[in-house]
Design brief:
Elements (H helix, E strand, L loop, with lengths): L4 H37 L2 H20 L5 H19 L1
Helix pairs in contact: 1-2, 1-3, 2-3
Length: 88
């Protein structure tokens, strides 16, 4: 348990940041899931539209420090490849 006042403050700050990061991570997963559902349904226009918003959301998470830059890029790349493969 935290003893000093600064340690207690850090516990409060960490709890706040954790809640914010959890919310952002959840939001990213939701957007990625929308792309995957459109891919499974075979709806290419919807998949492309969902991909555009998912890419934006992933890069926002990267800029906020929720995920690493390479992780965000990898996820965008894989989703893009899957959407592109639908037309082939």
């Amino acid at each position: 348990m935290a003893n000093t006042s600064s340690a207690k403050k850090m516990v409060r700050k960490i709890a706040r940041r954790t809640a914010i990061n959890k919310s952002r991570r959840s939001r990213v997963r939701t957007y990625v899931k929308k792309v995957e559902l459109a891919i499974v349904a075979g709806d290419q226009p919807a998949a492309q539209e969902a991909l555009r918003s998912a890419e934006s959301e992933l890069m926002r998470a990267v800029s906020k420090g929720v995920m690493h830059k390479n992780t965000g890029s990898r996820k965008v790349s894989r989703l893009t490849a899957r959407v592109k493969a639908m037309s082939a």
